[in-house]
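re: that chain from earlier
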Amino acid sequence: MPAERFVEALNEQIGRELGASQQYLAVAVWYEDQTLPRLAQLFYDQSLEERGHALMMAKYLLDSGLRPRVPGVSEPRPDFADFVEPIRVSLEQERKVTDQISGLAAIAREERDYVSEQFVHWFLREQVEEIDLMSTLLDTAERCRERPLDLEDFIARERLGGGEANPTAPPAAGGG
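^ sequence. v structure.
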């Protein structure tokens, strides 16, 4: 049985993951409206991935005999000054999430809840990839600030986003 403190923190993280999913969806819609389809698709995929993370966390609680909370989320930011800003916002968000997931690991360790600590390790590894992706996007976007279609070409050439399913990922509630 997961430690009570960990369960409370994980329920809060479920809400943050759902909020991140909504924010990425808003970014994707904004990019699609700006006729930047590859950026839009990358963020549609990111939105689904964040939702998937929330469902993995929910499944962990369900498998532990606990009912997860499914909180409401605040409205995401819908507008941006230019095509670089949503990427900067996303990188900041991923850095925050990394701190939050690290906090989950710390709580599990403090509570001697080693099963929950092990569960969180997958998410820590995932955050390294997320920060790398957003950092790469931001660096590239800054270099081609006056030519947004160059970033579209970069995404296509480097095949960024839309990665294959990770067989080491925890199972998600609802099977997906």
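The helical segments are 4-33, 37-63, 85-110, 114-143, 148-158.
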